[in-house]
């Protein structure tokens, strides 16, 4: 019998994070921690979503700053560019081109049902066409790299369902199986609570604990978490308590049970719990992790080098997908673009 030399193709994971502010505990426990673990399991494509950020952040210096910070945070937290790709969304402009193709097969009704769009408008974000179009660009992000799985927080699940719909519409309209149907993957903490009670979110600065905030700022934020007025001796429900819910994300099972029981029995005051949370944050995001993060600030060229090297690799996958799209829709592949890409002048 011939030897079976075929190896199972690796699962391809894709995800992104917007550089519209400092990355926070919600980003980490909802998505980034998972992204870093998955680099041991499959082919990972992670990007800093600077095109997406333009829907809420329109200040060039801020966008540059947060783009660098997001990439530096990933690297400090353990992303290994030898195992996973980390690139800037805008370094692969083909993604906007694919978004156009997808938009032509997507009904307005699908986008009108997007919760995230409605939530952002309710919070006062200007209702630009770009904001409305967000799910199409996100579908292009996913489909451009022929991704199998998309590890995200709960708030992105509807967008992944829309992406699956768009992949299906495209394949059906052009009678070609160009795109697969990607699946969302949730972490163990898909909706991390913020300091103001709702979801922790970059759009509400008061709600966030930044992963790499200044220690005095973090202490101030934690000590300022609003609680009810129950005294130290009174029993309290840990499951409705922001301090406990955040502590639980980082504490060992034993420490978690101990705090929960102390709250339930009475005897654990909010002030004491806040101090424990501050110490836990220092333990998890201080030390070596913080040292690595500081090195990125000292040598920004290292971060830039990772982003550029990874983008070159990701762009090869992107170009292959677009060739299939051109073929399916009947648009000739651009000889001009190909010549520019081959000569390397596109990056000049
Ligand atoms: P964004 O900040 O919108 O770019 O989100 C980057 C990733 O973090 C996405 O996968 C989100 O679903 C995830 N995320 C953002 N906020 C939270 C949160 N509060 N809890 C869990 N996941 C979150």
What's the topology here?
Elements: E1 12-17, H1 25-38, E2 43-48, H2 50-53, H3 60-77, E3 84-88, H4 94-103, H5 108-112, H6 115-122, H7 129-144, E4 149-152, H8 157-174, E5 183-186, H9 215-223, H10 242-250, H11 253-265, H12 270-285, H13 287-298, H14 300-329, H15 335-343
Parallel strand pairs: 1-2, 2-3, 4-5
Helix pairs in contact: 3-13, 3-14, 4-7, 4-14, 7-8, 9-12, 10-12, 12-13, 13-14
Residues 17-18, 26-27, 30-31, 152-153, 155-156, 190-192, 199-202 line the site of adenosine monophosphate.
Please tag this protein with its features.
2 domains; 348 residues; Rossmann fold; two-stranded parallel sheet; mainly alpha; Tyrosyl-Transfer RNA Synthetase; globular; binds adenosine monophosphate; three-stranded parallel sheet
Account of the 3D structure:
- The protein has 348 residues and is mostly helical.
- The protein folds into 2 domains: 12-192 and 303-342, 3-Layer(aba) Sandwich (Rossmann fold), CATH 3.40.50; 212-293, Orthogonal Bundle (Tyrosyl-Transfer RNA Synthetase).
- Helix content is 55%, strand content 7%.
- It has 15 helices and 5 strands.
- It has helices at residues 25-38, 50-53, 60-77, 94-103, 108-112, 115-122, 129-144, 157-174, 215-223, 242-250, 253-265, 270-285, 287-298, 300-329, 335-343, and strands at 12-17, 43-48, 84-88, 149-152, 183-186.
- The strands form 2 sheets. It has a 3-stranded parallel beta sheet. The protein has a two-stranded parallel ribbon with strand order 4-5.
- Helix 1 links the parallel strand 1 and strand 2.
- Helix 4 (94-103) packs across helix 7 (129-144).
- It is globular and about 75 Å long.
- The protein starts with 11 loop residues before the first strand and ends in a 5-residue tail after the last helix.
- The protein binds adenosine monophosphate (AMP).
- Adenosine monophosphate is lined by residues 17-18, 26-27, 30-31, 152-153, 155-156, 190-192, 199-202.
């Amino acid at each position: 019998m011939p030897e079976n030399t075929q190896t199972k193709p690796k699962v391809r994971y894709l995800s992104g994070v917007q550089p519209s502010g400092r990355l926070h505990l919600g980003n980490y426990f909802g998505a980034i921690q998972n992204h870093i673990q998955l680099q041991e399991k499959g082919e990972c494509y992670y990007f800093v979503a600077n095109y997406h950020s333009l829907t809420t952040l329109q200040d060039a210096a801020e966008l540059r700053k947060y783009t660098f910070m997001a990439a530096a945070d990933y690297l400090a937290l353990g992303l290994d560019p030898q195992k996973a790709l980390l690139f800037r969304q805008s370094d692969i402009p083909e993604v906007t081109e694919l978004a156009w193709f997808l938009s032509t097969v997507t009904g307005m009704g699908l986008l009108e049902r997007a919760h995230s769009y409605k939530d952002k408008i309710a919070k006062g974000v200007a209702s630009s066409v770009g904001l409305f179009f967000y799910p199409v660009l996100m579908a292009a992000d996913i489909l451009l790299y022929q991704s199998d799985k998309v590890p995200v927080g709960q708030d992105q699940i509807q967008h992944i369902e829309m992406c699956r719909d768009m992949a299906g519409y495209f394949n059906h309209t052009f009678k070609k199986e160009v795109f697969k149907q990607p699946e969302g993957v949730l972490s163990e903490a898909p909706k991390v609570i913020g300091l103001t009670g709702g979801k922790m979110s970059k759009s509400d600065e008061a709600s966030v604990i930044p992963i790499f905030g200044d220690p005095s700022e973090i202490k101030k934020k934690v000590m300022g978490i609003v609680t009810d007025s129950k005294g130290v001796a009174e029993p309290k429900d840990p499951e409705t308590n922001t301090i406990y819910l955040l502590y639980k994300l980082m504490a060992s099972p034993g420490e978690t049970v101990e705090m929960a029981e102390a709250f339930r029995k009475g005897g654990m005051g909010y002030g004491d719990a806040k101090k424990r949370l501050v110490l836990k944050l220092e333990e998890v995001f201080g030390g070596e992790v913080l040292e690595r993060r500081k090195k990125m600030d000292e040598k920004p060229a290292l971060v830039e080098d990772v982003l550029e090297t990874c983008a070159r690799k990701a762009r090869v996958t992107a170009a292959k997908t677009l060739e299939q799209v051109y073929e399916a829709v009947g648009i000739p592949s651009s000889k001009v673009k190909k010549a520019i890409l081959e000569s390397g002048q596109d990056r000049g």
